Amino acid sequence: MEKAQFQSRWMPYLLLAPQMVIIAIFFIWPAAEAIRASFFLEDPFFGNSTFVGLQNYTDALSASDYKRTAWFTVVFTVLVSLLSLALGMMLAVSADRVLRGQSTYKTLLMWVYAIAPPVAGLIGVMLFDQHIGPLVDFAAMFGWHLQIGVDYWDTGFAMIVVSTWKQVPYCFIFFLSGLQSIPTSVKEASAIDCQSETRRFWTITFPLLAPTTFFLLILNITYAMFETFGTIDQIVKDQPGNSPVTLVYKVFRDGFRGNDIGGSSAQSVILMIFVLLLTIVQFRLIERRIHYT
Amino acid sequence: MAIADTDRLPPATSDKAKTKTKPQKPRSNIRLYDHIVLAIGVFIMMGPLVVAFLTSTHDYVTIHREGMQITWGGNFLETYKNVLYQKGGFTGEVTGLLMTQNSLILGIGFAVGKIVVSMLAAYAIVYFRFPFATLSFWIIFTTLLLPLEVRILPSYEVVQQLGMLNSYSGLIIPLIASATGTFFFRQFFKSIPNEMIEAARIDGAGPVQFFWDILVPLSKTMIAAIFIIMFVVGWNQYLWPTLMTTEEGYFTLVRGIRNIMQQMIGADIPEYNEALAMAVLAMLPPALVIMIFQRMFIKGLVEQEK
């Protein structure tokens, strides 16, 4: 439907001006600068820069440190995204079915959404602390001596647990609202046709939630890759050493600590390309997404 | 946290009643299962927060000796008074109260700024016909592609060149550059029936009048929902404030968490209680806002999907 519109020679530009100025200064300029810097080798002491072509990219991609970080990022992102999806869905399905106490459960399960990733990280650091952490004692009961900050995968494990914990409420809210928007008639009809609750879930409810699941999957990937910075920063305690980090953390570390501006920019651009691809996939899925209702 | 309202199995009184209630039995089992799942979920989600809060009421020697606590420590007032009023940090200038104030400025400034800027832009895109409408839309759209985290270093340099380090505007404005809000409002404006604008035009209302007298009142719920979401997003910012603010007078609570961590590394016996008290202070306001305006918040959040 065509929207009825106003005609004005200058007003739309005036209305758009604040947004456009902010985008130009704080988005386009830095993004362009990142792309430019990725082709130069900058000398942090003398301030002159030399054009080096793709060397920053080849250097970054061939470094063993980069490969290790990229590998951890993949493992971390896949686990955090899928675990928060699964747990969020499980809780939402149960919350949708109970009659009593639903709003209490909802309120309590949502609470963690409000917590900033670094705050979640700080609480996680305490819970996993060698001296005071109850989770270390708990793991020791099973003979697992968790050593956060010492053992590579133990540290990674803590990051995955804390980051998933932080993201579950988000998935829960979306799944619950998705479940509640399924018409009662559909629910009743399926209940008549199929006795088994489990089978009904996989054949009726789960396909109906598919669009929400795709949407959340993309958001979870973005969350795990970019927004977990605070959590990771808390857990590695500013001294990454042998600890696993994600690619975004490495961009930050190489750029600000290592003063490797060209290399850090090249890594930024690689991440930009990744996000671009992710967005294209997202749009393909939205175009094709099937509405059952 | 306890399963207060777990459904009991239907009582079996007589043989007749037994046969009658039999088909309901699996249903009850499922409800019991659901309550167990939810109770475990609540335990995992809220447990760490309860432990963090209770531990913060103990003194740090006890925590260091005995680990995290699940009882009330009685040191609540002292610890929280220290965190809120005692001057700390490297310069000795910053207090918890000041950081709370900075967090509020960032949260509210970010939310209000984003709403104003994006509402105006969405209004132009939806209600005006002009040559560069599509181009503007695509430029705004591209900002969704690149989160601040991937262009953090050049963003920092730009802000540095503009002399905006250690200022509220440098803290808030670059964060507004992402256009999520514009898409919210664009979507919402498109759902408003055309009759509105036609009726307004017949009555002789111009674009400014239409915006103020019709669009803004119609968007009230939407504005409130976005405000809640953006306030939480702004309050919880970490990486940007960490880079932007080196003067402690501009620290926010979430930014302050980073210093606490650094102080804990050096200490013999870290002040666990004060660190956790800071964490509690940093999470309480956004959590309360979300709890109080729960319905509105969920509505606004879920709207993103559409």
TrEMBL record, chain A:
<comment type="similarity">
    <text>Belongs to the binding-protein-dependent transport system permease family.</text>
</comment>
<comment type="function">
    <text>Part of the ABC transporter complex UgpBAEC involved in sn-glycerol-3-phosphate (G3P) import. Probably responsible for the translocation of the substrate across the membrane.</text>
</comment>
<keyword id="KW-0472">Membrane</keyword>
<keyword id="KW-0813">Transport</keyword>
<protein>
    <recommendedName>
        <fullName>sn-glycerol-3-phosphate transport system permease protein UgpA</fullName>
    </recommendedName>
</protein>
<dbReference type="Pfam" id="PF00528">
    <property type="entry name" value="BPD_transp_1"/>
</dbReference>
<feature type="domain" description="ABC transmembrane type-1">
    <location>
        <begin position="70"/>
        <end position="282"/>
    </location>
</feature>
<feature type="transmembrane region" description="Helical">
    <location>
        <begin position="200"/>
        <end position="226"/>
    </location>
</feature>
<dbReference type="InterPro" id="IPR050809">
    <property type="entry name" value="UgpAE/MalFG_permease"/>
</dbReference>
<keyword id="KW-1003">Cell membrane</keyword>
<dbReference type="InterPro" id="IPR035906">
    <property type="entry name" value="MetI-like_sf"/>
</dbReference>
<dbReference type="GO" id="GO:0055085">
    <property type="term" value="P:transmembrane transport"/>
</dbReference>
<dbReference type="InterPro" id="IPR000515">
    <property type="entry name" value="MetI-like"/>
</dbReference>
<feature type="transmembrane region" description="Helical">
    <location>
        <begin position="12"/>
        <end position="32"/>
    </location>
</feature>
<comment type="subunit">
    <text>The complex is composed of two ATP-binding proteins (UgpC), two transmembrane proteins (UgpA and UgpE) and a solute-binding protein (UgpB).</text>
</comment>
<keyword id="KW-0812">Transmembrane</keyword>
<feature type="transmembrane region" description="Helical">
    <location>
        <begin position="266"/>
        <end position="286"/>
    </location>
</feature>
<keyword id="KW-0997">Cell inner membrane</keyword>
<feature type="transmembrane region" description="Helical">
    <location>
        <begin position="70"/>
        <end position="95"/>
    </location>
</feature>
<feature type="transmembrane region" description="Helical">
    <location>
        <begin position="107"/>
        <end position="128"/>
    </location>
</feature>
<dbReference type="GO" id="GO:0005886">
    <property type="term" value="C:plasma membrane"/>
</dbReference>
<keyword id="KW-1133">Transmembrane helix</keyword>
TrEMBL record, chain B:
<feature type="transmembrane region" description="Helical">
    <location>
        <begin position="168"/>
        <end position="189"/>
    </location>
</feature>
<dbReference type="InterPro" id="IPR035906">
    <property type="entry name" value="MetI-like_sf"/>
</dbReference>
<keyword id="KW-1003">Cell membrane</keyword>
<keyword id="KW-0472">Membrane</keyword>
<keyword id="KW-0813">Transport</keyword>
<feature type="transmembrane region" description="Helical">
    <location>
        <begin position="130"/>
        <end position="148"/>
    </location>
</feature>
<dbReference type="GO" id="GO:0005886">
    <property type="term" value="C:plasma membrane"/>
</dbReference>
<feature type="domain" description="ABC transmembrane type-1">
    <location>
        <begin position="100"/>
        <end position="293"/>
    </location>
</feature>
<feature type="region of interest" description="Disordered">
    <location>
        <begin position="1"/>
        <end position="26"/>
    </location>
</feature>
<feature type="transmembrane region" description="Helical">
    <location>
        <begin position="210"/>
        <end position="235"/>
    </location>
</feature>
<keyword id="KW-0812">Transmembrane</keyword>
<keyword id="KW-0997">Cell inner membrane</keyword>
<keyword id="KW-1133">Transmembrane helix</keyword>
<protein>
    <recommendedName>
        <fullName>sn-glycerol-3-phosphate transport system permease protein UgpE</fullName>
    </recommendedName>
</protein>
<comment type="function">
    <text>Part of the ABC transporter complex UgpBAEC involved in sn-glycerol-3-phosphate (G3P) import. Probably responsible for the translocation of the substrate across the membrane.</text>
</comment>
<feature type="transmembrane region" description="Helical">
    <location>
        <begin position="104"/>
        <end position="123"/>
    </location>
</feature>
<dbReference type="InterPro" id="IPR000515">
    <property type="entry name" value="MetI-like"/>
</dbReference>
<feature type="transmembrane region" description="Helical">
    <location>
        <begin position="275"/>
        <end position="293"/>
    </location>
</feature>
<feature type="transmembrane region" description="Helical">
    <location>
        <begin position="32"/>
        <end position="54"/>
    </location>
</feature>
<comment type="subunit">
    <text>The complex is composed of two ATP-binding proteins (UgpC), two transmembrane proteins (UgpA and UgpE) and a solute-binding protein (UgpB).</text>
</comment>
<dbReference type="GO" id="GO:0055085">
    <property type="term" value="P:transmembrane transport"/>
</dbReference>
<comment type="similarity">
    <text>Belongs to the binding-protein-dependent transport system permease family.</text>
</comment>
